[in-house]
Amino acid sequence: MFPLLIGVAIHDRLRVSFQLSLSLTTMLICRTSPLPRLRKGAIKVKRKMEIAIQKLNQSGRVLVLTGAGISAESGVPTFRGGGGTSVWRGMPFEQLSSKQMVDSNLPLVWEWFDYRRSVVSECQPNAAHQALATFEWNNRFEDFKLVTQNVDGLHAAAGSTGVVELHGSIWRARCLKCEARRDMRTVPAGERPPLCLKCGNVMRPDVVLFGENLPSDAFEDAGLHAKDCDVCIVVGTSALVQPAAFLPEFARAAGAFVIEVNPEETVFSGKCDLSLRGRAGEILPQILRSTHKNKFHVNSAVP
Ligand code: APR
Predict the structure, then answer these.
(1) Ligand 1 contacts CB of residue 66 (under 6 A)
(2) Distance CA 245, CA 169 (A)
(3) Which residue among 43, 124, 219, 231 has its CA within the 20 to 30 Å range from the CA of 199?
(4) How much distance in Å is there from the Cα of 69 to the middle of ligand 1?
(5) Taking the domains of the chain in order of start, what are their residue ranges?
(6) What pLDDT band is residue 295 in, cutting at 50, 70 and 90?
(7) Where are any strands of DSSP class E within 97-165?
(8) Per-residue model confidence as pLDDT tens digits over 151-168
(9) In terms of DSSP bridges, do strands 274-276 and 241-242 run parallel, antiparallel, or are they unpaired?
(10) Overall pTM > 0.85
(11) Rounded Cα–Cα distance for residues 109 and 202 (Å)
(12) Distance from Cα 177 to the centre of ligand 1, integer Å
C-alpha cells in the first residue's frame, strides 16, 4: 500500500512495493550516484530552456507530474511555499485533511471541503493546464501521461483526458460503507454529510487524506509510466508528500531525464537533471511553442 505521508522515509518501503521490472540494485546504484548528468548551476536560463526543448523533441514518452503550484495562477491557494503552510480557522491543513479528522469530526471535514470547492469553483484553468492539454491533444508524443496530486479538477476542465488523480477529487463524495461515489455538483448544499444513494450511509470527500493509502491502481499506473518515460516533467510541487514525490525519482533511476518547473527551489531540485525556475503558466506554454508539432500522429482538434 502507498500511504500519504510527508517526508522521505517511505522510500525503502516503496522500492519493495513496486512490482516493476527495474531491479532494486539498479535503482540503488542510480540513486546514490554522485554524478549529476548536467552541471545545473552553470547553465543559464535560456540554455536550460533549450536543453529542455531539445530533450522533449528527442523523446517519445513523456510523464508530467503536477502539484498545487500549477493551479496557483488560476487562484487556487497552494498548501506550502514561500516558507508557509496553509491554515483554515486556525488549524493547519494537515490536521484537517487527515483520517483522524474524518473519524472524529466529519462535519468539520465537510465544511473545509465545501470551502475548498467554493474557491475552486471560481477558478478557471490557466495557460499551464491548457499547454498540457494541448500536448496531449495534438499528439506531440508517442505516449503522454499526466499524473496529478491535485484534487481541483482543473486539468480535466482544460481538456486533458485520462489524468491520473493520485489524491482523488474534491468534486466527488464516497460512501463510508459501500464506497459508492456521488458527484458533489449534484448534491444539495444542505445535505451534509451527503448520503449514499445506494445504501443510505454517510459519505466523505473522495480524496486521499494524510494517513490513508493512495488508490493502488492509480499509483501503479503512474509508476509504470515513470519506469518507461524518456522525460519526466515535475510541475509546481514542493515534492514533500510521498509517495507521489517518489515518482520522478523513480523515473530518473530508470533513466529518464527529469525537469522541474517551479519558481522556488525544492527538496527535489538537487535530484533532477534540470530546474526551470519560473511560473508554470509562463514556462509550459513556452515549451509547447518550441517543441515539434505532430511528431507522431495526425493532429486532432485542439481543445
Ligand atoms: N508555477 C509553478 N509552481 C508554483 C507556482 C507557479 N505559478 N506557484 C507556486 N509554485 C510551487 C511552490 O513553489 C511550491 O513548491 O508550487 C509548490 C506547491 O507546493 P505544495 O503546496 O506543497 O503542493 P503539493 O506539492 O502539490 O502538495 C502535495 O500535499 O497537502 C497535500 O494532498 C495535498 O496534493 C497535496 C500534496
Answers:
(1) no
(2) 18
(3) 219
(4) 4
(5) 38-73+124-167+214-291, 87-122+170-207
(6) low
(7) 143-148, 164-165
(8) 999 999 999 999 999 999
(9) unpaired
(10) yes
(11) 13
(12) 32
Which atom of ligand 1 is closest in space to residue 66's alpha carbon? 26
70-112 per-position pLDDT tens digit: 999 999 999 986 666 688 888 888 888 999 999 999 999 999 9
CA gap 140, 57 in Å, rounded: 9
Give 87-122+170-207's CATH code, choosing from 2.60.120.10, 1.25.40.10, 3.30.1600.10, 1.20.1250.20: 3.30.1600.10
Is residue 167 lining ligand 1, measured as CB closer than 6 Å? Answer: yes
Active site residues: 167
Q: How far is CA 13 from the centre of its chain?
A: 21
Question: Does 243 contact ligand 1 (Cβ within 6 A)?
Answer: no
CATH homologous superfamily of 38-73+124-167+214-291 equals: TPP-binding domain (3.40.50.1220)
> Residues near 11 by Cβ (< 8 Å), separated by ≥ 6?
242, 246, 249
